[in-house]
Amino acid sequence: MTSRYNAYSFIFALTTPLDGLLVFENNDVNACANCGSPMNLLTRVWRSSLGKKYLMAISGLVLLLFLVGHMVGNLLLFLGREDINRYAEFLHSTKEVLWTVRLVLLAMAFVHVLAGVSLWIENKSARPVAYENPDPVVASYASRTMLMSGLIVASFIIFHLLHYTVKVPAVNLTGADFGTLQETLRDGSQRADVHEMMLKGFSNPVVALFYVLGMGLLCLHLSHGASAMFQSLGARSDAYRAFFNMLALAVAVVFFLGFSAVPIAVLLRLVK
Ligand code: HEM
Fold first, then answer.
1. Which end of the chain has fewer CB atoms at under 10 Å, N or C?
2. CATH no., domain 51-267
3. 74 lines ligand 1 (CB under 6 A)
4. How far is the CA of 160 from the centre of ligand 1 (A)?
């Protein structure tokens, strides 16, 4: 009986993720004459803490899906120059798609950071004096450092984009200009040599270790963020709390191993 009840509550939780948005904290549903317009809905979502948590969860989910694709793409380095360079060429082949994806990611990152900072400020003003002895069981280290780890990860991403996307020579600490690295194909045509760029980029131990550190912080952030996401989207009922916490930890560990494998392998000269 209990297990059947748990299964129902799990399905119910998964199928009603937007319920919370219909109940706003200031209970002003009836007072609003023009609530149906999209702009109004957005304002109301933003004004409610619950709405901001949904925005964080949905933007976090989109960024997480991007990370899955990006990690798998990076791991093509282990298959060789041909595979990773062909993959990079494919990603850059349709400018409209590339720029649409870039703009969606930028918007998601913007919403995620803005909602996170705004919720943190709300929490601070609701409880200006921190608990004297925060209970480490209730609040894990990852959950207590979400704002800090999130802002450091955001700074890492800015560095990463300057390093490998904009290819600013001054930040790669190798003296090379990554913008000029080209692979010449059999028919004489040329394409960007992402394989060589990664080998050169991570040949500097400071840069490689900085990436591993960045991935560590990203995964600390994800180990709590993914579980909070399940909760905000309605999937983490009390009965499944432990399961979703474990799932979030597993996701974080897989990302850490998958992303760190590249700089570590290059640094140890396991990829040539
Ligand atoms: C060790 C970890 C990582 C490695 C080795 C890596 C590698 C790369 C490389 C080589 C590129 C350039 C690809 C190209 O020019 O075709 C790139 C682009 C990018 N990376 Fe990463 N990345 C890592 C982690 C991350 C993380 C954690 C994020 C986000 C949270 C991220 C977000 C991006 C973005 C947004 C782009 C730009 C894609 C574009 O619009 O062209 N990367 N990465």
1. N
2. 1.20.1300
3. yes
4. 7
The domain locations on the chain are 51-267
What does the pLDDT look like over 146-199, one tens digit per residue? Answer: 999 999 999 999 999 999 999 999 999 999 999 999 999 999 999 999 999 999
Residue 174 CA to ligand 1 center (angstroms) comes to: 18
88 Cβ inside 6 Å of ligand 1? yes
**Residues 98 and 92 sit within 8 Å (Cβ to Cβ):** yes
Q: Which of 175, 161, 184 is nearest to 81 (CA)?
A: 184
CB distance 212 to ligand 1 below 6 Å:
no
Cα 74 to middle of ligand 1, angstroms: 8
CA distance 45 to 52: 6
Give me ligand 1 centre to Cα 233, in Å: 27
**Positive or negative: CA dihedral 45, 49, 51, 53:** positive
Q: Which among 62, 161, 57, 76 is positioned nearest to 116, based on CA atoms?
A: 57
Find out whether the beta carbon of 78 lies less than 6 Å from any atom of ligand 1.
Answer: no
**How many Å lie between the centroid of ligand 1 and the Cα of residue 10?**
35
Q: Is the minimum distance from the CB of 172 to ligand 1 under 6 angstroms?
A: no
According to DSSP, the β-strands at 182-184 and 190-192 are antiparallel
Walk along the chain (272 residues) and give the pLDDT tens digit of each residue.
444 444 434 333 433 444 444 444 444 444 455 666 888 888 888 999 999 999 999 999 999 999 999 999 999 999 999 999 999 999 999 999 999 999 999 999 999 999 999 999 998 888 766 655 555 545 788 888 999 999 999 999 999 999 999 999 999 999 999 999 999 999 999 999 999 999 999 999 999 999 999 999 999 999 999 999 988 887 667 778 888 999 999 999 999 999 999 999 999 999 98
